[in-house]
Amino acid sequence: MERDLTRERIIKAASDLLAQGGRDAVSTRAVCAAAGVQSPTLYRLFGDKHGLLDAVASHGFESYLAGKTALAETDDPVEDLRHGWDLHVNFGVTNPACYALIFGDVRPGTEPPAARRAAAVLAARVKRIAEAGRLRVSEERAAHLIHATGRGMTLTLISLPEERRDPALSIMAREAIIAAITTGESTAAGDGPTGIAVALRAVAPQLAPLSSAERTLLTEWMDRVAASDL
């Protein structure tokens, strides 16, 4: 219990420093002084500064993740994607230091736990679009495009003075991506072999009449068709 309270106190101290002065303000010495602990305690609880920053990012991202996962699903998965995009951009603009900590600090081959959790939520939303037969590219490609564009747009808006931020930029980027990855039809048949393959691949795990090996083989086949861009 005391360990948890100490951990929370350190995270709060680091979060306050981050909000007030950005990442440069979150030094080990400053955090320890603000939390009233010695550096060995910090290292014992978080391992190193990266561990502390990951914990701070997860703490700050909780409100975003709660809001994103709490978005009620509608009958239109593409419209749900729009709502998720808007929530993502709004969180970044409202919490620039936290957002930059998560998405602006690129570590090759790795990503903060909070970013992985957000990616999982996005993947689930993309999968719903695929299951509805409205995805014209593979789920992985769609998720990467959405993530890359949304992240770039949010960081761009953060970098601009508030008076120069054009809300229409985010909407234009959002609609361009949606047009690139989705069809206007509620069935994949209207988008040729790629759309059919993406939809079938999305529902493959639910095809109970097939054996596990058959479902795995079907998934592999549909991945190859989707990747061929027919």
From TrEMBL:
Superkingdom classification of source: Bacteria
Species annotation: Nonomuraea cypriaca
Keyword annotations of the record: DNA-binding
Residue spans binding DNA: 27-46
Signal sequence, start to end: none
Matches recorded under Pfam families: TetR_N
Protein's name according to its UniProt entry: TetR/AcrR family transcriptional regulator
HTH tetR-type domain span: 4-64
Gene3D superfamilies in the record: Homeodomain-like, Tetracycline Repressor, domain 2
Keyword Lyase part of the UniProt annotation: no
MF terms in GO: DNA-binding transcription factor activity; transcription cis-regulatory region binding
